[in-house]
Design brief:
Largest sheet: 5 strands, mixed
Number of helices: 7
Strand order of the largest sheet: 3-2-1-4-5
Oligomer: single chain
Number of strands: 8
Radius of gyration: 20 Å
Distance between the termini: 34 Å
């Protein structure tokens, strides 16, 4: 994938009623997920997305899936999901038959199942790419980790901090090296722990 973090997310048509992806987002953060119909991995991912749908909604994150599958395969898959689990697809679906959208996001892959790489993008409220990942069709994605990443992104955008590996809301955070030591001491006082000039920890906001 060649789309850099911070690049503008390419726009695309969502359906006949909504002119574009960015109009549909309407200033919300969005999660774009490439899905493959009739695959075990993506079937279980649909279950997880349904379970976590309210978690994404509480963070004002809209879910949208991208597929290169045929309408027939997607219809069969939706019927299977309904029969097996009592629901269809857990989010809005955009069918990319000609790979135009996939090409604009640099995830078109003629030899991959469905013609798309198994990609995932987080798009910021201002329309920029905040996170991107790509993996094999046989490896299920951890959407609770995506929620954690979104929590981290939201925190670090509103506060001048960085989060650690496996950080969770409420955990201590780190100060970026760009924050002068004098300012850090004035701002955080006795709660500031300095291990190295670049390793300064404070309580989570």
């Amino acid at each position: 994938m060649s789309l850099a973090i911070g690049a503008n997310a390419p726009d695309f048509t969502v359906d006949d009623d909504i002119s574009s992806f960015h109009d549909w987002r309407n200033g919300s953060r969005a999660l774009i997920v490439a899905l493959k119909a009739l695959s075990p991995t993506c079937t279980t991912e649909c279950q997880t997305l349904l379970r976590l749908k309210d978690e994404f909604k509480s963070r004002n994150v809209k879910l949208i899936a991208l597929s290169g599958d045929t309408q027939d395969d997607l219809g069969r898959w939706s019927d299977d999901l309904q029969a097996l689990f009592g629901h269809g697809l857990p989010c809005r679906l955009v069918i990319d038959h000609d790979r135009t959208i996939a090409t604009s996001y640099d995830i078109a892959a003629p030899t991959a199942p469905g013609g798309l790489q198994r990609a995932l993008f987080i798009v910021a409220p201002d329309g920029r790419i905040e996170f991107a990942s790509c993996g094999p069709v046989t490896a299920g994605r951890n959407f609770e980790e995506i929620l954690r990443l979104i929590d981290s992104i939201r925190l670090t955008q509103r506060a001048r901090v960085a989060t650690s590996a496996e950080w969770r809301p409420g955990d201590p955070v780190w100060l970026p090296p760009s924050l002068p030591q004098e300012e850090a001491e004035q701002r955080y006082g006795a709660t500031l722990q300095t291990f190295r000039p670049y390793l300064r920890m404070v309580p989570g906001p």
